[in-house]
Amino acid sequence: MIEYALAFGFLALSLAVLLNLWRLFKGPSLMDRVLAVDTMVINAIALIILFGIQQRTTIFFEAALLFAMFGFISTVAYCRFTLRGDVIE
Amino acid sequence: MDFIVELVVSVLIVLGGIFALVGSVGMVKLPDLLTRLHAPTKATTLGVGGALVASMVFFAGLEGRLSIHEVLITAFLFLTAPISAHFIAKAHLHEYPELREDLPDTGRPLGWSTFERMPDEGEVTEETEDDRHAAHH
């Protein structure tokens, strides 16, 4: 049963990433693109977690945690750059 | 017993996938950025939360090892999602000054702190809830 649920989860999340990609290319404003990348990172984390369940290994959690951290830091750094023209003042 | 755990894991995975998909569809369909911000920050965070809880139940119930990594990732995502949403909204408001006219009144002598200068010493007096109530009548 888990196999079918995993297949559905992979399908839904892949579709979600494709929709994010569409928003990333379409824009129209700069912050739309930042938001699209932020959402894409969160969806990628969910994909990694589902892949870990499928492979029955916990080794991917570190990768998911790193994705979460880098996604957040890059979003904040980009917003800060557009707000102040500098990342660290 | 195993069947119940499998059922719970499957339901959580499907729910997480649906939530993530709804969040991304909302980001494509909604009309402008400040409404588009709602969909990913709420639905997608719930979606990834569902996948993480499913993974926790799976490894604790079927594989017999309790992993706390998921709690760490969940806590980190739930803490950082509002912060990044706040930053995106703020940067967007600074990018398009015409949006400032739609902002609600602060109900105080000074406007929104992100657009105003620093108040001088002693300029802002503490206003209690009763004062503001009286000023309206």
Walk me through the structure.
The complex is a heterodimer of chains A (89) and B (137). By secondary structure, chain A is mostly helical. Chain A has a single domain, classed as Helix Hairpins, CATH 1.10.287. Chain A has 3 helices and no strands. Chain A has helices at residues 2-26, 30-55, 61-84. The mean pLDDT of chain A is 88. Chain B has 137 residues and is mainly α. Chain B is built from 5 helices and no strands. Chain B is elongated, with a radius of gyration of 22 Å. Chain B starts with a helix and ends with a helix. At the A-B interface, helix 1, helix 2 and helix 3 of A face helix 1, helix 3 and helix 4 of B.
Topology:
The complex is a heterodimer of chains A (89) and B (137).
Chain A: H1 2-26, H2 30-55, H3 61-84
Helix pairs in contact in A: 1-2, 2-3
Chain B: H1 2-29, H2 33-36, H3 38-61, H4 69-95, H5 129-136
Helix pairs in contact in B: 1-3, 3-4
The CATH architecture classification of chain A is: Orthogonal Bundle
Give the terminus-to-terminus CA distance of chain A: 53 Å
What's the domain count of chain B?
A: 1
Q: What share of the residues of chain B lie within helices?
A: 55-70%
Helix content of chain A: over 70%
What count of structural domains of chain A? 1
For the record, the CATH class of chain A is Mainly Alpha
Structural class of chain A: mainly alpha
C-alpha termini separation of chain B: 64 Å
Query: Which sequence of SSEs, written as H and E, runs from N to C of chain B?
Result: HHHHH
Give a brief rundown of this model.
The complex is a heterodimer of chains A (89) and B (137). By secondary structure, chain A is mostly helical.
Descriptors:
heterodimer, A: 89 residues, mainly alpha, Helix Hairpins, 3 helices, 0% strand, B: 137 residues, 5 helices, 66% helix, elongated
